[in-house]
Design goal:
Structural class: alpha/beta
Helix content: 25-40%
Radius of gyration: 16 Å
Strand order of the largest sheet: 2-3-4-5-7
Largest sheet: 5 strands, mixed, barrel
Number of strands: 7
């Protein structure tokens, strides 16, 4: 069961990635990478061609987000998570690049979960529909690559106390299953 809120720093160390347990509530401070399906597709196309990627993904934590434009005096607009399953076709290759975690919403397929276990990385979720609230934890937004993709460009996001829940931990424990168990007997 959840232990309360755990404060962690991004990018995660391998030890932090492995220590997080399904159901843990975390507050993330540090730097994460924003990238959605169009950016993932382009990264994987570059990998398939043997090209160097425009960013270093080693140890990165990727947040699946395509934010809305920033209002005046704010670094970002609404920044709710994108459905993670849209990244599933690309995720195994991105995991092979050395990432230490992913943040999105929704379920992951079995192939992605197997790769997570193999590489000992967690998948975290944050609340869909709460993009304006989540944006308050984002202090800076800097486009790093694929600017032509607009909201789907790859960006670095500096966050403070970004709220997330560990949905699937590095050992494959799945909170979508564990968390539903008490309600299945009702």
């Amino acid at each position: 069961m959840p232990q309360g809120k755990i404060k962690i720093t991004a990018p995660f160390s391998k030890e932090t990635a492995k220590s997080l347990k399904a159901g843990d509530l975390v507050l993330i401070t540090g730097k994460i990478i924003a990238a959605r399906d169009a950016a993932h597709k382009r990264l994987c196309e570059s990998l398939a061609k043997g090209e160097e990627l425009p960013i270093n993904l080693k140890n990165a934590v990727i947040y699946y987000v395509g934010p809305s434009p920033a209002r005046p005096n704010f670094p970002i607009g609404s920044a709710g998570p994108t459905t993670s399953g849209r990244m599933d076709p690309y995720t195994p290759k991105i995991i092979d690049c050395g990432i230490h975690g992913m943040i999105g919403k929704g379920y992951r397929n079995d192939i992605v979960i197997e790769e997570m276990i193999k590489h000992e990385i967690p998948y975290l979720v944050t609340l869909g529909g709460a993009g304006a609230l989540i944006a308050k934890s984002i202090k800076k937004y800097t486009v790093l690559a694929y600017e032509d993709l607009g909201a789907e460009a790859i960006a670095e996001i500096e966050v403070q106390d970004f709220p997330a829940i560990v949905a699937i931990d590095a050992q494959g424990n799945n909170y979508y299953t564990i968390g539903q168990q008490p309600y299945k007997t009702l």
